[in-house]
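Re: beginner question about structure tokens

> Can someone show what the tokenized structure looks like for a real chain? I only ever see the sequence side.

Sure, here's an example I had lying around. Input first:
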Amino acid sequence: MEKTYIDANQQIGGWFVQPNQSQPSPAIVLMPAVHGLTSYIEETIHRLARHGYTVFALDYYTTLGQPQLNSPEDVQKTLAGISDNQVMEDAQAVVNYLKEQPNVKEKEIGVMGFCVGGKFAYLAGCEVDGVKAAVNFYGMIHVLETDNHPVSPIKKAGNLNVPLLGHYGTTDHLIPKEHVLEYDKELQNNHKHYEIRLYQGAGHAFHDHTRPNYRAVAAKEAWTHTLHFFDFHLKGIYL
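And the corresponding structure tokens:
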């Protein structure tokens, strides 16, 4: 796909798709996993567009260039180098861009993401103005606090400003079930509007059919709940 840039210096870019309809649509900012704009992400944004959503998939690597991710060490190095604050600034710019589009309902914008993108979707629900709902697919709950990751996600529970749907697998080797239960407790204690769903026997990246951890039943269930969640919060559709 051809990349869309939303700033004059071409520092913020991604894939932008719109539904095949004449009336204005709600929109979703999609935060990819660490591998960025893959064929899986392309398929996902088109699935959302067919369901009536405008979608912008943010490219974290617009200015840095696509990293080499051939080993777990490469992945960890890349994750450590992505700035939470920069991604939130870029996400805000994307939301502002979507609001300016004539065929987008400016008050009906959601955010969703996978893996590190799930974490960013959750953080956007805490920090980005104009977001109305967030979906977090197996986003990290605890991270080592550094300059690029100044606050561990679990500590942001009190800042959540929008309804949240979270999807996690019970056999995720990166995010233990006890972390998910702690996340649930923090959101509950802060009286947030949320739902955390656990999928038995599913591991990390269970929704990505291009990965070995793909689990068809869990993926279908999570996708169905995601569409119902966005349809309710962004389209006002009741089951």
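Each token stands for a local structural state, so reading them left to right follows the chain. The CA atoms of residues 48 and 97 lie 18 Å apart.
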